[in-house]
Design brief:
With 306 residues, the chain is α/β, with parallel strands linked by helices. It is built from twelve helices and twelve strands.
Length: 306
C-alpha cells in the first residue's frame, strides 16, 4: 500500500473485537511475554459509553490476549479529564473487569509523589515541564487503546497522541500548580500534547474505530461507524491514518483543512521523532479482505493530502 515503509498500520474489520485484536497481536509479533509487566493505557476520559470511552469488549479482548501470551502482570493506569477518575472507572465497569480478568487498576490521581517522574526540557512548550506516571516509563511493555474522535476543546482530534494526556498529572504533588489548566489555556496545546509522547514508548496501540465521532467530541458528537480496528506501534502513523479515516466521512474544519502532516499534533510529534515524518513512510496492512477497500480509500487520502 506504500513504499518504502518505516511503520506499518494494520487494519481489520471488527465485527468480532476479540478475533480482530488476536489478528493484530499475531501480525505485530506481540509475545511471548513470559515474566513481563505490561502497562495498559485505555481511554476513560469521561463517564460516557463507547466511542467516548473504551468499549468493554475491547478491554476484555486486550487483557485476555496479553494473558494468553504470558504477561506476568497487567496494570491499567488512568486519569480522567472530565470527572472523577475512580467514579468514571467504576461506572464504566473497569473494576469489575479487573476482578474478573485478574489485572490491576491504578487511579493516577491517587499516586504519591514518588509515582511521578518530572519531565523538564528547555525545548518543551510546557512552562514548567510536566509529571508523567512512572508506571509507563518502567513497564516492560506498554499497550494503549484509543478511540476515533474529534475534540472541540482545542485538541482538534483525540486519537493515540491525545490519549497520552491521561498519563500526565493534573497537579504537582503540592497541589499548587495545575498542569491541565496550563494545557487547556495554551495556544500551544496541540504541540504540548505531542510532546508528552516523546517521553514514553508504545509497543502496540489499538484504535477502536468500529465507531467514532466525526464532529464534537471527546464525550459526544456526530456518530460514524467505520467498523474497523486500526493498530500500530507508531503513534504518528496511526493518528495520520485515523485522520484520513475521519476525512473520508467528512469532519471538522480543523481536521479537514491542510495536509495531515502539517497538523500541529502530527507535525510536532514527527519533529520529535515519536513516529514517521511523512505519509510515504507508513504502510497500510489490511488483515482481511473486508479491510482492503477501507485501506485503499485511506491510502488515496494519505497520498493526496498527507
Amino acid at each position: 500500500m506504500a513504499s518504502p515503509a518505516a511503520a506499518e498500520v494494520y487494519l481489520v474489520r471488527a465485527a468480532d473485537r476479540a478475533a480482530g485484536i488476536g489478528a493484530v497481536f499475531e501480525e505485530a509479533g506481540i509475545g511471548p511475554l513470559t515474566g513481563k509487566r505490561v502497562a495498559l493505557k485505555a481511554n476513560y476520559n469521561s463517564d460516557d459509553p463507547f466511542p467516548a470511552s473504551t468499549h468493554p469488549d475491547a478491554l476484555e479482548a486486550l487483557v485476555r490476549r496479553l494473558n494468553d501470551v504470558g504477561a506476568r502482570e497487567i496494570v491499567l493506569a488512568e486519569r480522567s479529564g472530565m470527572g472523577d477518575t475512580r467514579t468514571v472507572l467504576q461506572n464504566r465497569g473497569v473494576f469489575d473487569s479487573a476482578e474478573a480478568l485478574g489485572f490491576d487498576v491504578v487511579v493516577l490521581d491517587d499516586l504519591p509523589a514518588d509515582g511521578w517522574e518530572a519531565i523538564a526540557d528547555p525545548d518543551l512548550s510546557w512552562k514548567r515541564g510536566f509529571l508523567i506516571a512512572k508506571i509507563f516509563r518502567d513497564a516492560d511493555l506498554v499497550v494503549q487503546t484509543c478511540c476515533l474522535k474529534t475534540h472541540r476543546f482545542g485538541g482538534h482530534f483525540t486519537l493515540s497522541l491525545k490519549n497520552s494526556v491521561g498519563l500526565v498529572a493534573r497537579h504537582d504533588p503540592s497541589g499548587e500548580y495545575n498542569y491541565m489548566a496550563e494545557l487547556h489555556a495554551s495556544p500551544d496545546q496541540r504541540r504540548m500534547i505531542a510532546e508528552i509522547n516523546r517521553y514514553y514508548r508504545t509497543d502496540l496501540v489499538v484504535m477502536d474505530a468500529t465507531a467514532g465521532f466525526a464532529t464534537g467530541g471527546p464525550e459526544a458528537g456526530s456518530l460514524i461507524e467505520p467498523g474497523l480496528l486500526l493498530a500500530s506501534s507508531d503513534r504518528v502513523a496511526l493518528d495520520a491514518v485515523g485522520i484520513a479515516l475521519l476525512r473520508s466521512y467528512g469532519s471538522t474544519p480543523q481536521v479537514m483543512k491542510g495536509r495531515i502532516f502539517d497538523l500541529e499534533q502530527i507535525a510536532r510529534a514527527a519533529e520529535l521523532g515519536v513516529g514517521v515524518r511523512s505519509a510515504e513512510e507508513l504502510r497500510l496492512v489490511p488483515l482481511d479482505p473486508a479491510a482492503k477497500s477501507a485501506a485503499t480509500e485511506i491510502r488515496r487520502i494519505l497520498d493526496e493530502t498527507g
